[in-house]
Amino acid sequence: MELCLEQVSKRFQDKKAVDSVSLRITPGVWGLLGANGAGKTTLMRMIAGILKPDEGQIIYDGVRIDSLGEAYRDIFGYLPQEFGFYPEFTVRDYLEYIAALKGLKPGQSREKIGELLETLTLKDVRNKKIVKLSGGMKRRVGIAQALLNEPEILILDEPTSGLDPGERVRFRNLLSEFAHDRIVVISTHIVPDVEYIAMKNAIMKDGRIIETGTTQELVTRMEGKVFSEKIPAGMLMEYEKRLRIVNLKNEPDGEITIRYLGDKTESGVWQEPRLEDLYLWLFPQGTDKEGEETDRTEGGKKR
């Protein structure tokens, strides 16, 4: 099982949202990390077959996905950032509707829906209209629909948006188990979502993949660049002007311990780097140059 992206590009008007991306994705969890506007959603939509690349090709097990047609959709699961539903749909109605679209037989769909309602703690709201659910519950419904056909390829775009910490942990554990013999790609800017469960990560910036590797391989690139230092609270503003501070903690003695990134330090103590440190090194503001999302739909609107 292998999903290959070969020099894939996509342009909207005067912007190249995805620029010559090549990846060889094998079974397991893959993290696609990047700030808003990096091109992640456009890339996910091309993998899902919703958008066609302007250049390059996407191949699954030796066959272009645009040639596979319905056969590709049968083995594919997709959670977009926003999923649509009719306002009158209850959770069960919606999942039954999606199951029918995916070609599941009635007995098979009832069993799978019951299993997912239980796994994603949606059983108590199964007869409630989706429109009345909290953001976190709606997200869980979206996750459920993506898993209905037990897809060989599962693409999740910002899947944990709106989930509380406990739900995030349960979801990560579910994906780790699910990805044993399947391809799972999680597109996110929330580093903890993939730091421990991803077999490999790809980091995307300005439409390009700029780094790939396991979490450990990527983290080693920050060795010697992460420091901590205890400073007087009154000196914080001065330190913020000259250091890239990523964490700070108030101490009982009135001082502050700061964690910062840099090529060198005079007085700080070297710290073990984390994947989040690399992310913050590459994306110091967490956004693109204009400070806003720049992926665009075919209609030219922000996603």
SSE inventory with pairings:
Blueprint: E1 3-12, E2 15-25, E3 28-33, H1 40-47, E4 55-60, E5 63-64, H2 65-68, H3 70-74, E6 76-79, H4 91-101, H5 106-119, H6 135-147, E7 153-157, H7 165-178, E8 183-188, H8 192-195, E9 200-205, E10 208-213, H9 215-219, E11 226-232, H10 236-242, E12 244-250, E13 255-261, E14 269-270, H11 275-282
Parallel strand pairs: 3-8, 3-9, 6-7, 7-8
Antiparallel strand pairs: 1-2, 1-4, 4-5, 9-10, 11-13, 11-14, 12-13
CATH class of the largest domain, named Alpha Beta
- Give the second-level CATH assignment, the architecture of the largest domain: 3-Layer(aba) Sandwich
Quick one: CATH superfamily of the largest domain? P-loop containing nucleotide triphosphate hydrolases
Overall spatial form? globular
Please mark out the parts with pLDDT under 50 across 5 or more consecutive residues, or reply none: 286-303
- Indicate the proportion of strand residues: 25-35%
* Total helical elements: 11
Indicate how many domains the architecture comprises: 2
N-end to C-end Cα span: 31 Å
Number of strands: 14
Strand ordering within the main sheet:
6-7-8-3-9-10
Q: How many strands, what sense, and barrel or not for the largest sheet? A: 6 strands, mixed
User: CATH fold name of the largest domain, please?
Assistant: Rossmann fold
Mean pLDDT across every amino acid position: 89
Order of helices and strands: EEEHEEHHEHHHEHEHEEHEHEEEH
* Amount of helix: 25-40%
Rg value: 21 Å
SS content category: alpha/beta
